[in-house]
Design goal:
Elements lengths: L11 H36 L4 H5 L9 H11 L5 H13 L13 H34 L5 H15 L2 H15 L14 H27 L2 H8 L4 H38 L5 H10 L3 H29 L1 H10 L1
Helix pairs in contact: 1-12, 1-13, 5-6, 5-8, 5-10, 5-12, 6-8, 7-8, 7-10, 8-10, 10-11, 10-12, 11-12, 12-13
Length: 330
């Protein structure tokens, strides 16, 4: 009598349909989120005291005549009720027309498109550094009952608690001013090192904490004991099997992490005098440049949304269990 072993597989069609449905659901919720963010920023900016017409004409120091101010208010629709202005704003948002910057006299879309690349380079490098730190700390110290494991856990807590503004100043003083290993200001790849470390180290500590908890749970699973009993080396089991399970919560949080990195980039770009939307946002808020503030905030929220969708897809690709559950649900 022959015994035939069967392996249950999930057809690729249901998996793809389930993944597409998940992405569409996330995208629908993201549209509501983007509308809410833009709306909140719009009304908050209108609560700030000041005359945008005066800002457009160069500020109070320009001392424009009242007739000129009235003409600008009529041209930009500032004389209309706030709800009417809000309706025009939503209409432009749907067309991806965010208007012109009051102070820079350029299209908001062109300004943001020009400045978003340096910020994405910075946040991408910081996210890579964060994952290198998280994986290194997890593989070398997690799942060990000795003082080495406690040391790794302590390092993660310290890293996660470091504020960006303090860490950036310390790294700048130590490595750029005292040791002179890296430049103070540089737009090239070398100049990216200190800002990326400033953003990446705290996030790396946080991701390592999440990964460590899951790693400890996975080390007690039957598949680990089974692999070790078959003669597999401990290092191989930790790297090839346990880390894949342990990384899932961190991958799921990477979308949030990228959003927090872009928020932190506002501070870091000012500290290191780097180009990017952080510098643009600070200048726009200071000058009460409403279209530019809304444009930058909207783009940051959009990047956050896209990052969350990508992290959902990455979780499905890394964990076969999610693929099977999606396939069965379809």
């Amino acid at each position: 009598m022959t015994t035939t072993s069967r392996r249950t597989t999930v057809p690729s069609g249901p998996v793809l349909r389930g993944a597409a449905r998940k992405v569409l659901t996330t995208a629908g919720a993201s549209v509501v989120l983007l509308w809410a963010v833009a709306t909140i920023v719009f009304f908050l900016q209108h609560l700030v005291p000041g005359d945008p017409a005066l800002t457009i004409l160069g500020g109070a120091s320009a001392n424009p005549p009242e007739e000129t101010l009235e003409a600008v208010r009529e041209q930009y629709g500032f004389d209309q009720p706030v709800l009417v202005q809000y309706g025009h704003f939503l209409s432009g948002l749907v067309r991806l027309d965010l208007g012109d910057s009051y102070t820079m006299k350029q299209s908001v879309v062109s300004i943001v498109a020009e400045q978003i690349t340096p910020t994405l380079q910075l946040t991408g490098a910081a996210l890579l550094i964060a994952w290198v730190i998280a994986v290194a700390l997890t593989l070398t110290t997690a799942g060990r009952a000795s003082w080495w494991g406690r040391l790794g856990s302590g390092v993660e807590v310290v890293f996660a608690a470091l504020p960006h503004f303090w860490l950036g100043v310390v790294l700048l003083v130590v490595f750029a001013v005292v040791l002179q290993w890296l430049p103070v200001v540089d737009d090239g790849p070398v100049g990216l090192v200190l800002p990326a470390l400033t953003l990446g180290i705290p996030l790396g500590g946080f991701l390592a904490q999440v990964t460590r908890d899951e790693f400890d749970v996975a080390m007690r699973q039957p598949f680990v004991l089974s692999a070790l009993s078959r003669g597999a080396r401990t290092g191989d089991v930790r790297w090839r099997h346990v880390l894949r399970h342990a990384a899932l919560p961190g991958i799921a949080l990477s979308g949030w992490g990228l959003g927090s990195l872009i928020s932190g980039a506002v501070v870091v770009e000012v500290i290191f005098s780097r180009q990017g939307i952080g510098q643009v946002l600070v200048a726009a808020v200071t000058a009460q440049d409403l279209p530019l503030v809304i444009g930058v905030t909207f783009v940051v929220a959009l990047v956050y949304v896209v990052a969350n969708i990508l992290s959902d897809l990455a979780s499905v690709l890394v964990d076969p269990r999610l693929r099977h559950s999606i396939g069965r649900a379809s």
